[in-house]
C-alpha cells in the first residue's frame, strides 16, 4: 500500500484532480479526456478502485484519474493525451472502449 507524502507536487496534483473532477461534474471536461479517465479507472478497478487508493501514490483513484501526469510512470497508462494523440493511441494499442464498458 502506498503512503501519500505531503509535498508541493502532491498538493498540486490533488488540486488538479479535484478541479477537473468538478469540471466533469458540470459537464465541462472534454470528451476525449473523459474517455481516458474512464479507461484508467477500468484498468485499476481490481486493485486501486476496490481499495479506494492508488497503489502507486495512495491518492483516491476517482479523482487521481483526472490528473494529466500518470502516477505510475506509464506502467499502467500514459500521461493524459490530446484528442488526436488519444485517437492514435487507441488505434495503435487496439483499444476498443466497448471492451471496457465505456
What does this structure look like?
This protein has 5 helices and no strands. With 102 residues, it is an all-alpha fold.
What would the keywords be for this entry?
globular; 0% strand; mainly alpha; 102 residues; single chain
Q: Spans with pLDDT under 50 lasting ≥5 residues?
A: none
Number of helices: 5
Give the overall form: globular
Evaluate the radius of gyration: 13 Å
Beta-strand segment tally? 0
Proportion of beta-strand residues: under 5%
Q: Biggest β-sheet: count, sense, barrel?
A: none
SSE order in H/E notation? HHHHH
SS-derived structural category: mainly alpha
What's the number of structural domains? 1
For the record, give the distance between the C-alpha atoms at the N and C termini, rounded to a whole number.
28 Å
Instruction: State the helical fraction.
Output: 40-55%
Mean of residue pLDDT values: 92
Detail the topology: elements first, then pairings.
Elements: H1 8-25, H2 31-43, H3 48-51, H4 61-64, H5 83-92
Summarize this, please?
With 102 residues, this protein is mainly alpha-helical.
